Amino acid sequence: MSRSNSRSRAPAAELEADITDLSHDGRGVARIDGKAVFVAGALEGERVRLRMRKRHRHFDEAEVAEVLSPSPHRVEPKCPHFGQCGGCSLQHLDAAAQIGAKQRVLADNFARIGKVEPAQWLPPLADEPWGYRRKGRLSVRAVAKKGRVLVGFREEANPRYVADIRHCDVVHPALGTKIELLGEMVGTLDAAADIAQIEFAAGDDTMALVFRHLQPLSERDREALVAFGKAHGFAIYLQPGGVSSVHPLWPEAPRLAFKLSPGGGADDVELEFQPLDFVQVNAGMNRRMMARAMELLDPQPTDRVLDLFCGLGNFTLPIARRVAEVAGVEGEHGLVARAGENARRNGIVNASFHVANLFEEQRGTDWARQPWDKLLLDPPRAGADHVLAYLPHKATQRIVYVSCHPASLARDAGILVNQHGFRLSAAGVMDMFPHTAHVESIAVFER
């Protein structure tokens, strides 16, 4: 007998279990004979018949064979590929419950890792849940048994394989409706077996496709790619080597750009970018996030603000419209160069940009020694603990922290509260990746 659930006497490979929780990656959690089992396709509160996939020493992995007692929050997935494609994990959970699950993950991480709790929970931020993904990477695989080329995300059950999808409801509709056409076109190329991946990036007016090819392309293939771009309105880029090898095939000089209007009017900023640059995946949520960050940061005309992990200037340049001075720091030379170009293009003269690896010691740099009234952090998944070893200075009164990983935010919140004397005034989740278990959040700290 299970300690918490009874086991079915039916087929040996299938068991019945109660789902008591939702894991960080969106799988249901059951306990069978005291051992955790992560069940793909199951939701908290359900009783399911599950089929084992893999057994491990400390946990097992399974999939739903049948839902015996469904959650009231279970909905019919919009995409027919859900469950096979690993691009989404929560399409079977209604939108409000998705947000609630992410809020619980953030709260649990604050309590368990940072030993802190926000004085106020911010209302969750959400935007259009479909067609939101303006940036991503599609895998490509020529499959002889199917007689065609598959283009899509990796399979949920076996990430070694490319999911056989015909369209994608979360990818920007300029591309999401044409996944099958894209695969058919690649299948006509001489180099069909040598196309490893296709990255996509959408600006406000242009969708770019970057074809990573392992062998030089024939003139026939280049013509086919140009024809496909012209027929469907895509800018076509080639990537024969590393990131620096990316170059446009057609048109000669594509322009990728998007506008930010966090407060409207005088706040308007337009950012140009290259197709492999980091930009926020969800354009609608980026605008909402920007507005909330500005509200929480409360930039004043006399403020000096430091923006760390600034990228292209996504936060830096809108902040510059409202303060005396802002400095952005980023580790990637190309992003810093383009941030400076974006500042000049927008007529912004009170923003400076610096190249620095923020995971290494930087306390001796000029920007790190200066007093800053306010600080904005938008680090990658690893968080900002290296920076917090020497920042913020005592002059800093407010910090806004934008996070893509709740565990690192919680850890850093503990550092700010317990070591630097800040108060976690407010925090909340932002649904940057609807239908996935990814938790994006924002927090504000005050002296």
UniProtKB/TrEMBL annotation:
Classification via SUPFAM superfamilies: Nucleic acid-binding proteins (SSF50249), S-adenosyl-L-methionine-dependent methyltransferases (SSF53335)
The record's EC number reads 2.1.1.190
Active site location: 404, 404 (nucleophile)
Q: Report whether Transport shows up as a keyword of the record.
A: no
The function of this protein is: Catalyzes the formation of 5-methyl-uridine at position 1939 (m5U1939) in 23S rRNA.
UniProt: S-adenosyl-L-methionine binding residues: 280, 309, 314, 330, 357, 378
PANTHER family in the cross-refs: 23S RRNA (URACIL(1939)-C(5))-METHYLTRANSFERASE RLMD (PTHR11061:SF49), RNA M5U METHYLTRANSFERASE (PTHR11061)
Keywords carried by this UniProt record: 4Fe-4S, Iron, Iron-sulfur, Metal-binding, Methyltransferase, rRNA processing, S-adenosyl-L-methionine, Transferase
InterPro entries hit by this protein: 23S_rRNA_MeTrfase_RlmD (IPR001566), MeTrfase_TrmA_AS (IPR030390), MeTrfase_TrmA_CS (IPR030391), NA-bd_OB-fold (IPR012340), SAM-dependent_MTases_sf (IPR029063), TRAM_dom (IPR002792), U5_MeTrfase_fam (IPR010280)
Quote the catalytic activity from the record: uridine(1939) in 23S rRNA + S-adenosyl-L-methionine = 5-methyluridine(1939) in 23S rRNA + S-adenosyl-L-homocysteine + H(+)
Q: Where is [4Fe-4S] cluster bound in this sequence? A: 79, 85, 88, 168
Q: What class of enzyme is it?
A: transferase
Kindly list the GO molecular function terms attached to this UniProt entry: methyltransferase activity
Q: Which HAMAP family match?
A: 23SrRNA_methyltr_RlmD (MF_01010)
Q: Which organism is it from?
A: Dyella agri
Q: Where is the TRAM domain?
A: 8-66
Q: Which Gene3D superfamilies match?
A: 2.40.50.1070, Nucleic acid-binding proteins, Vaccinia Virus protein VP39
Name of the molecule in the record = 23S rRNA (uracil(1939)-C(5))-methyltransferase RlmD
Q: Which GO terms describe its biological process?
A: methylation
The similarity annotation says: Belongs to the class I-like SAM-binding methyltransferase superfamily. RNA M5U methyltransferase family. RlmD subfamily.
Give a Pfam family name. Answer: TRAM
